Amino acid sequence: MLFKRILFDKIMGAWMVIALGTILLLPFVIGVGLYIKSAPLFQHQDIWHLIGTSEWLPHEGKFGFWPFIASSIYVTLIAFIFAAPVCLLSAVYLTQFSSPRLMRVMHPVIDILAGLPSVIYGVWGILVIVPFVSNILAPAFNTTSSGYSIFAGGIVLAVMCVPYILNMLIEVFNTVPIGLKEASLSLGATFWESVKHVVIKKSYPGIISAFGLGIAKAFGETIAVMMVVGNMVQTKFNPFEGGYPLPALIANNYGEMLSIPLYDSALMFAALLLFVIILIINLVFRYFIYKTGER
Amino acid sequence: MNRRKIIEENIFRFLSGFATYSLIAVLAFIIVIIFVKGFNALSLDMITKTPSGGYYYGGEGGVLNAIVGSLYIAMGATLISIFIGMPAALYLNVHLIRKKRIQNTIRYFLDTLWGIPSIVYGAFGFILMLYLGMNASLIAGIITVALLITPIMVRTFDEVLSTIPKGLHEASLALGSTNAETAFKIMFKQGFSGFITAVLLAFGRGIGDAASVLFTAGYTDLIPINLDEPAATLPLAIFFQLGSPIPEVRERAFAAAAILTIIILIISLAARFISKRYSRTNIK
């Protein structure tokens, strides 16, 4: 009987260790796999040349990733400008001003927003944001636009990032000791002053991390952005024109990538680039969060 | 001076309240738009028939192939991720309970894995597929989605397991149980509501993700029967049909989007309901 129990324990222990080990090995395997596949590209051009130039002619073997990287950064930036203030204000309201009842309503709202598939956001973007940009916003700025633009991508992305950033901000604000705020209030500060000078100051690293992780999330978003962003290779900085972010590049061209030499390596290099950038952002800001959590 | 303070207070109270309520409004707006547009074209044919000959030119048929394909992929992937994710989360909370530092490092890596976009998993799945000599198929899609959702599953389950009182764990060990018995008979039971939530969350992510199956699952008008056949998925069906120049096909894309939204809403509500139901019997 005892022998059977110990045997069960050993087998289960081994299964658990193998399972955990497999998961933890995953990022390394992904990194190595993508690197091996994109390696043929490095034999022809060096990495900085690939990232820095903007000539994209796969048939002639010219792969300049700059237009795609620039589009990605641009879309992410617009999304961030819209999402960040809304999230910050909303998190302040939910944790400092409102009743706990609103929080109970808000939790499912955040969960559903976070759970909606990205393709649904894309459909919504095509139905609402794209006509809005082409019919109302572009005429207001005295330009014309088809609506399928960097700006539309940015707005859709902003809505997608909100639940993600907001969730983290609420957690960050909840870790601020209530006594600190009460001390500030008892000294005669108003609610907003206590928030501004005590709560936000105290959770500064957490806020920065939440924003950073939100940016990482926006940077890698594929389908929704690809549906509204127009997919045009260009480097002009006009938000009403189309762009072509990195994830869209990978997703759009998988069909023909085996028919042109080096094209598959180029796309895998795009994936590797995405992987490395997002991994680094994640590692840095998560480290921030864990450091503040331990204190 | 005092008046300025009060005005500032009121302005920011209003602004922050406005931001919060506008988020609720945006969610309502999205769902209403999807449903209003989708229900116009939604019919029984959409969910009971596969595309027939002229479907992509506005002919008869539905998206049953995509619904079934999505369910197959999400279910297969969830099964794999339960097989890998559940023991990993238990190990983290039973065997490593006294090693706080290792525990935190592992959580740190898992959170980072959660942040990697699905298109990268898709590209990796594609490499894996080429390496193993497979074609775009149901099984390749399942494996790729499983890789994507396992970190989510582990972290969600782990989050609930980590709130279980230490005393319960210690009591079990004091009675002479082995680590494995503590894990499966005590911790798993106590954290069962969290387990269900984790499974449903992972399932929802699996059914809605398009970027990872784009390379690996392929697309077909037939319902897959074997694991090595390609499979259609609902998000990709929406995406491809939206690209069509024919209005009727685009209308059907909206209907498919409504179907997908309903599935996601059901999963989300079920997760809330079930986790509440099962956490009632827990030892506090």
Structural write-up:
The complex is a heterodimer of chains A (295) and B (284). By secondary structure, chain A is mainly alpha-helical. Chain A has two domains: 2-44; 51-294, MetI-like fold (Orthogonal Bundle), CATH 1.10.3720.10. Chain A has helices at residues 2-44, 47-52, 66-97, 100-115, 118-140, 150-174, 178-186, 191-202, 204-220, 223-228, 246-252, 263-294; strands at 56-57, 62-63. A two-stranded antiparallel sheet of chain A has the order 1-2. In chain A, strand 1 (56-57) and strand 2 form a beta hairpin. In chain A, helix 3 runs parallel beside helix 6 (150-174) and helix 4 (100-115) packs across helix 6 (150-174). Chain A is globular, with a radius of gyration of 23 Å. Chain B folds into two domains: 2-41; 55-279, Orthogonal Bundle (MetI-like fold). Chain B has helices spanning 2-41, 44-48, 64-94, 100-115, 118-132, 138-161, 166-174, 179-190, 192-208, 213-216, 234-242, 247-279. In chain B, helix 6 (138-161) runs antiparallel to helix 9 (192-208) and helix 11 (234-242) runs antiparallel to helix 12 (247-279). At the A-B interface, helix 1, helix 3, helix 4, helix 5 and helix 6 of A face helix 1, helix 3, helix 4, helix 5 and helix 6 of B.
CATH topology grouping of the largest domain in chain B: MetI-like fold
Rg on CA atoms of chain B, Å = 23 Å
Q: What is the CATH superfamily classification of the largest domain in chain B?
A: MetI-like
**Count of domains of chain A:** 2
Q: Could you state the CATH homologous superfamily of the largest domain in chain A?
A: MetI-like
**Helix amount of chain B:** over 70%
Q: Could you estimate the helical fraction of the residues of chain A in percent? A: over 70%
- Low-pLDDT runs of chain A: none
Contiguous low-pLDDT stretches of chain B (5 residues minimum) are: none
Number of domains of chain B: 2
- Output the number of helix runs of chain A: 12
Average pLDDT for all residues of chain A: 86
